[in-house]
Batch of 4 targets.
Target 1
Amino acid sequence: KIIYTADVIEETRSYNGVERLREAALADIHQGCFTVMKEVLLFLINTDQPILGQTIVAYNAMLQEYKGGTL
């Protein structure tokens, strides 16, 4: 989670919303990583880019972890 999140929010990144993601990650790395993953998925969808199956599996695992319940 730390490496994935750090890559997306590292200091040379300057896209719209990166400051909000940095704040989320600093407040709670687990919730921040989940927020980062959601934003990345939305970016991929909105730009018609492919999403690897492992990314969906990781998202579903985090969703279950933070929202509870089963998929």
Note: Residues 1 and 7 are 10 Å apart (CA to CA).
Target 2
Amino acid sequence: GYTWEYSKKDKLQGEDYMHSGGFASFLSSGVKYYFKETSLGLSYFIPLTQNLNDNQLQNENRITCDVSFYF
């Protein structure tokens, strides 16, 4: 799949903080296992593009894990 993230600039003492904000897009793949009222997911993301303001750390490949409970 495709994932896109955007973050507005943070505020510092009421002013936009120039070292924050930006966007990134990722190619993503994952699996989700459902069992009764619970699910367990695992996803892998590869950065495609990123435009982060100032000197922020660049995104690298990432793995995420999630657990959801349905009620």
Note: The longest strand covers residues 38-52.
Target 3
Amino acid sequence: ELVVTDGLQVGALMGFYNVSIAAPQILAAVGSSGLFWVLGRLGTDEADALGWAIRMGGLSSLVAAWLAAGI
């Protein structure tokens, strides 16, 4: 007997997996955009703004590693 709900459960699982991969990338892009906007308003040049974006990415990675260590 063919059960259709199994395929739907696999599809839902794959959708959840895709969201869990894409959401941090979208948040990082929005955060970097906001950081560039704020630094642009403060008169920071592009090279320094890029350096701050990389610093914030590194800090975010350290926080994520610390949170993941508690799992």
Note: The chain has two helices and no strands.
Target 4
Amino acid sequence: ATRRNEDYLAHINEVGHFSVLEHASALPRIVAVTHPQNLPSQRVTARLGMRNEGLTDRYYNLAMRLFVVER
């Protein structure tokens, strides 16, 4: 996790909110990346209503499948 993410998660724990999903639902845009063959994780993104944006190498310097949801 990046330092910014670590700070965010520490803040959630500090103020007594333990559901990251609860907080994430308030964000305007959420992204997820999976290994291209990781079908179980891709099914989770589909259940969350995320759309498949195709392959990207923007994260981890690897070809990953990108999923996005915008509120």
Note: The CA atoms of residues 29 and 70 lie 4 Å apart.
